[in-house]
Amino acid sequence: MLDRADACGADQTTPAGVLPAIEQLRDRPVYLDLEANLPSAITAQWYWWPDADSIAVRRGLPTRDRAVAHELGHMMLGHEGVAVPLNRWAPNADTSAFAWTLRRRRSRVEWDHIEWEAEQFAALLCYELRRRAGYRRATRPGVLADAFG
Question: Which keywords are on file for this protein (predicted)?
Fold first, then answer.
């Protein structure tokens, strides 16, 4: 089920809750599907339409906040979303529509860097949202990385 970001019922302490601000910054609506039927290799995906964005998160994913934050990272860092023509997209599209993402022509090094950037953005966003929500144990990104080398 696709919802407009401002209608999905998320509060501002979750990544979904900041979608209205992202819509305003990007001057286009963002749709969110937290029950998407994605292939097992894809946990979430950002789709770019000519006049909107959508984020699909695989049904039953326990880390959906982190997945939404990761896709927001791609969006806000200027990465390329999967361009899907409006007349071809459907909520229950078969998985061949998503297979294109696995065949993109990028070097592994470039792909890893793009994913690393999106993960860093997600870590910072989730940290900041937890901190603002009053969680005392919100761990600053990098603390665990420093601890484990």
Answer: Plasmid
User: Residue 87: CB partners within 8 Å, gap ≥ 6?
Assistant: none
Residues in CB range of 117: below 8 A, 6 or more apart: 73, 77, 79
Q: How far are the Cα atoms of 67, 133, 149 from residue 138, in angstroms, in the given order?
A: 18, 10, 20
CB 17 within 8 A of CB 65: no
CB 9 within 8 A of CB 41: no
CA 105 centroid distance within chain:
21
Domain ranges of the chain: 2-148
pLDDT digits (tens, 9 = 90+) for 21-65: 899 999 999 999 989 988 878 889 998 888 889 999 999 888 889
Strands 52-58 and 30-36: parallel
- Is pTM, for the whole model, over 0.85? no
CA distances (Å), 37 to each of 41, 61, 125, in order?
12, 11, 26
Report the DSSP beta bridge partners of residue 4: 31
Q: What would you measure as the largest C-alpha separation in the chain, in angstroms?
A: 49
